[in-house]
Amino acid sequence: MKIFKATFTALIILVLMAAGKNCSKGIEEGFYTGTFKVVYGNGTFTGKTTLELREFKYSCEGNDNRIPGGGSGTYELDKNRITFHDENMWTADFDWNLILTGEYDYTVKGKNLTLSARKNNAVYEYDLLKK
Fold first, then answer.
1. What is the Cα gyration radius of the chain?
2. DSSP state of 131
3. Could you tell me the pTM of the whole model?
4. Helix, strand, or coil (residue 39)
5. DSSP letter, residue 110
6. How far apart are CA 113 and CA 18, in angstroms?
7. What is the distance between the alpha carbons of residues 96 and 66, in angstroms, rounded to a whole number?
8. Average of pLDDT values for 31-36?
9. 13/3: higher pLDDT
10. What is the DSSP letter of 109?
11. Helical ranges in 1-131 per DSSP H
12. Alpha carbon 64 to its chain's center
């Protein structure tokens, strides 16, 4: 019985360690460049962008036409979701979903990072490459 308990305990510890590694792997910090795309019912709009992630803080470069709008603040990771908390003041004359804030699904494939969110019948997507 003692061998069973020891084996069971060791197995539980290994499973927890493996789960912790998968959750903590997440997104690598650093500087990313790429494109932003928003798909509305009446068309698709794109723009170049950059994203920097450091110590759970982020900075996203926007464009004059606000595609994307940019943003900066803090972020947190949870499995395949990242939540951005923008800390800026914004005017009310554009779609605030163009600001990098709120929850996004993410995928990482090598140096490629994709962020995507569906908000108010539109799709917002960042296709980025780590430098």
1. 19
2. -
3. 0.80
4. strand
5. T
6. 23
7. 9
8. 98
9. 3
10. E
11. 2-25
12. 23
